Every structure is written in structure tokens, then in C-alpha cells.
């Protein structure tokens, strides 16, 4: 795959000239068990030295996955909803924790998700909540913090550093998958243009550069083109003026 990375490299030169540094992190969603795709994800993380915040679906996660994560240094387990089930009516976009669902039921699931994940991975758990489909009722932010989470992660640049007192907002910003089309790779030139546009907004202080810039992947549905783009992208990022971000319970 021949990707023209020159626009990104040119943008990074402007960052260097301005003495700026980009905080950067990686999140991958929908893990439930050890698979060949998870092994490939692990290999890519190791090869690029970029840790993966692995968003695990608590209800369906197997003990085999918990065992596999015991000794891994490249994975940081985080909480991905409860069951990844849609409760929204057909007229609305999918959501497990949307405003149309009973708040008490949502809060009960938030709590049992944390209990289940702690039993699965113990002290390795980073108490970040990743709502399925990146959607969550804003009214649930305070209950998230009260339940024991210290961060929430959705998609697109955040508006405020904190979603609620004690609950940081740490979003993702780039998804290489063409979900509404082929479900393959978005054209690489479009992805590079989007990356550069997002970084320009940060450099110009239009959006918050204190928020880690997040790469979002879904290992279970990757084709060879997405794996290869991800490999190149991660290497390009690591050659830039970045600071890798790891979220854990101490953040």
C-alpha cells in the first residue's frame, strides 16, 4: 500500500517549529475472547511500541481473555458498555446507554460492568468507560463517576476536559473503517487529509490539544488493508512530535 504521508510530515514540521507536542493514544473496541485478530493487534502494538486501550464487552468476556491479558504489556483493559446491545428505537441511532432507556437500568449496568471487569482483569483495569457506538446520555456522566469510573471515551474532539467532576473526557478522533460503505478502509488520501485537518485545528488552538489524539480500531473486522494502513500510520505518528498517553486508574 502506497500512502502519501507528506502532508502529515509537513504538518508535523510546523508543530516542531512551534515547539508543540501531540499527546497520542490508541483504543480498540469489542474484545471478548482471544482470537487470531487479537494476536495480530498485539503484534502490531509491540512492533510500534504503542499500547492499546482494549475496550472489552464485560457480559461476554471470557476468562480465557482475562488470562491472556495477565502478562501482556501492550494492552490496557477498559470497559466497553455491558452487553453491547441496542436499546434505541429504530428512528434513532443505536445506543446501549441512550436517553430512551430507563436511567436506573443504565446505572445498574454501569456498576455491574465495573464489577465484572475487575473480577476478570483485577488491578490491571483502567476505569475508563467506552459506550458502545460512542453514544451515551449526558445525564449518566455523574453516575459514571459515582460508580468508580474516572474517564469516559467517545468520538470527535471534546468540548470540555471533564464530562463530570472526577470524570475526564478522553475521546478518539480517527477511525479508518468505512462503516457506512464497504466496511473496508476509508481511502487513505481521505484519512491523511482528515488527520492533517484535525492537527491543524489543534495547532491553531481551535480544539483542545491537551486531549490525547485518539486512533480508534476494531480488530475483529480488519482486513489486510486496514492492518497495513494502521501499521504505517502508527509508525508515522511515532516519528512525529508526540507523547504517548496511557490511561490507568492513577490518572
Give an overview of the whole structure:
The chain is an alpha/beta fold. It has a single domain, classed as Glycoside hydrolase/deacetylase (TIM Barrel, Alpha-Beta Barrel). The protein is built from 7 helices and 9 strands; from the N terminus they run αβαβαβαβαβββαβαβ. The strands form 2 sheets. Strands 1, 2, 3, 8 and 9 form a 5-stranded parallel beta sheet that branches. β6 and β7 form a beta hairpin. α1 packs parallel to α6. The longest helix is centred in the middle third of the chain and has 19 residues. The chain is globular. The termini are far apart.
Please supply descriptive tags for the structure shown above.
251 residues; alpha/beta; TIM Barrel; 7 helices; 9 strands
What is the topology?
Layout: H1 6-17, E1 22-31, H2 36-48, E2 52-56, H3 63-69, E3 75-79, H4 103-121, E4 128-129, H5 141-147, E5 151-152, E6 162-164, E7 167-169, H6 188-203, E8 213-217, H7 224-238, E9 242-244
Parallel strand pairs: 1-2, 1-8, 1-9, 2-3, 4-5, 5-7
Antiparallel strand pairs: 6-7
Amino acid at each position: 500500500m502506497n500512502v502519501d504521508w507528506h502532508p502529515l510530515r509537513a504538518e508535523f514540521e510546523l508543530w516542531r517549529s512551534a515547539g508543540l507536542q501531540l499527546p497520542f493514544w490508541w483504543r480498540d473496541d469489542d474484545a471478548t475472547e482471544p482470537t487470531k485478530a487479537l494476536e495480530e493487534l498485539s503484534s502490531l502494538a509491540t512492533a510500534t511500541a504503542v499500547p492499546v486501550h482494549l475496550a472489552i464487552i464485560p457480559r461476554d468476556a471470557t476468562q480465557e481473555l482475562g488470562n491472556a491479558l495477565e502478562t501482556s504489556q501492550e494492552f490496557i483493559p477498559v470497559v466497553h458498555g455491558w452487553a453491547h446491545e441496542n436499546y434505541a428505537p429504530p428512528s434513532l441511532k443505536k445506543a446501549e446507554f441512550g436517553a430512551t432507556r430507563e436511567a436506573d437500568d443504565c446505572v445498574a449496568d454501569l456498576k455491574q460492568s465495573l464489577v465484572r471487569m475487575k473480577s476478570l482483569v483485577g488491578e490491571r483495569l483502567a476505569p475508563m468507560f467506552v459506550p458502545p457506538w460512542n453514544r451515551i446520555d449526558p445525564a449518566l456522566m455523574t453516575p459514571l463517576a459515582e460508580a468508580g469510573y474516572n474517564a469516559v471515551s467517545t468520538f470527535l474532539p471534546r468540548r470540555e476536559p471533564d464530562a463530570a467532576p472526577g470524570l475526564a473526557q478522553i475521546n478518539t478522533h480517527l477511525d479508518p473503517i468505512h462503516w457506512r460503505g464497504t466496511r473496508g478502509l476509508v481511502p487513505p488520501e481521505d484519512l491523511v487529509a482528515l488527520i492533517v485537518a484535525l492537527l491543524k485545528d489543534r495547532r491553531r488552538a481551535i480544539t483542545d490539544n491537551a486531549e490525547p489524539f485518539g486512533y480508534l480500531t476494531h480488530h475483529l473486522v480488519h482486513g489486510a488493508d486496514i492492518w497495513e494502513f494502521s501499521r504505517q500510520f502508527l509508525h508515522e505518528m511515532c516519528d512525529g512530535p508526540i507523547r504517548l498517553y496511557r490511561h490507568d486508574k492513577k490518572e
